[in-house]
Amino acid sequence: MTSAANTTPPVTWLIPVLNGMPYVRETLESIAAQTYPNARLLVWDNGSTDGTVDELRKWVPSRIPGRVVTDQPMSYPNALRALVDTADTELLARIDADDIAEPTRLERQVETMLADPDLAVLGTFGQRIDPDGNPLPGGKQHATTDAEVRWRLRFAASLAHPCAMMRRSAILSVGSYRDLRPYEDCELWARLAPRYRLYNLPDKLMRCRAHPNSVVATDKPDTSKIMRQIAFEHATQLYPGVDIATVRSVYDALFEPDRTVTLAELAGLRELARAAAIGCGLEPNYFVNTRVYRAQRDQLRRRVLTRVPGVRAAWSMAGSAKRAVIGAQREAA
C-alpha cells in the first residue's frame, strides 16, 4: 500500500534564524503538527548564542525530517537566498522562528498551488500575537485575488513573507533574493509580478508573533520610500513602455498627500495600470478594475478637482448634505 507521503509533492520549510529562543520551540511544534504528510525542514542558523541550535537538534532530523546549517552565518536576505539554493523541492514554505503555523496551513496551500500551475507565491492571512501567544487586535487583511495583489504590491506590501508558499523554479527564474534588508521580500515580489500569478488565501493560517526582538520590531522602514525605490528600479519591467518621468510623477502624487496633483498625473495612473497589464500578457483593464486602482484614481481625482475654483466649496456642501441624509435615515429607523 502506498503511503500518503509518497503520493504528495514534497515541501521544504525555510527558516533563517538568529537567536530564536524561547519561541522556536513553538514554531517547531507547529511544523510537526501539520496535517500535510510530506514536508521537511531546512534551517540556516546565523550565529545563534542562546541555545537555538541545541533546541533545533532535538527536533531535526529525529522528529522533523531535514537539516540545520550552522557553519555559514550570514545576513538575513543572504540566508534566504542560500536556503532557496540548498532546497531540493519545488514547493517552499516560509516561516520565521517565532511564528506558529496552523495545522492545515501546508495542506491548504499545496492544494491551491497544485490547482494553479502559474501561481508562483501563495500567501495567507495571519493573526498577530503578543510574546505570550495572545491574539492582538488589528493587523493587515491583504487582498486575495491575483489582480488586486499584483497591482497593490507595486505600492505596498501585499504578501506576508512568513506566510508564503513559493515555487522554487519561479524564485530562481528572477534571480532569487537580493541583500536588501529590510525589504528583500517586497523587491522579490516586484520582480515576480510581471511574470507570475500571486495571491492570498483568505484564511488566518499563521500566528505571527510581535515582540521587541522580532524582525518586524527591529526593522522600521519608511514604506513610502522603499516602494518608490523598488518601482523606479524595476520600472521597465513593471510598466513597460512608460517613461520613467511619468512613473516618478504618479508615485510622488500617490505618496505625497499634500502635493498638488495634475490632470497629467491622473491620466498617468491609468497609463501605468494598462501598461502593467499588457506587460503581464493580460487584458488592458485587468488592473484598472481593481478596488486598489479605483481608490487611487478617486484620491487623485479629488485632489485635481479641489484645485478648480468653487469645487472645494461644492465638495464641502455635498458632504454636509450627505451627512444630513444619513442622519435623517438613522432617526427614521
Classify the oligomer: single chain
Total number of helices? 14
Major beta-sheet overview:
8 strands, mixed
Strand order of the largest sheet: 3-2-1-4-7-6-8-5
Percent of residues in helical segments?
Answer: 40-55%
Indicate the structural class: alpha/beta
Q: Round the mean pLDDT to the nearest integer and report it.
A: 91
Low-confidence stretches: none
What is the beta-strand fraction? 15-25%
Radius of gyration, whole Å: 23 Å
N-end to C-end Cα span: 65 Å
Spatial shape: globular
Please write the string of helix (H) and strand (E) elements. EHEHEHEEHEHEHHEHHHHHHH
Total beta strands = 8
Question: Could you give a quick summary of the protein structure above?
Answer:
The chain is an alpha/beta fold. It contains 14 helices and eight strands.
Notes on the protein architecture:
The chain is an alpha/beta fold. Helices cover 44% and strands 15% of the residues. The protein contains 14 helices and 8 strands. It has an 8-stranded mixed β-sheet, sandwiched between helices. The protein starts with 10 loop residues before the first strand and ends with a helix. The model has no long low-confidence stretch (mean pLDDT 91).
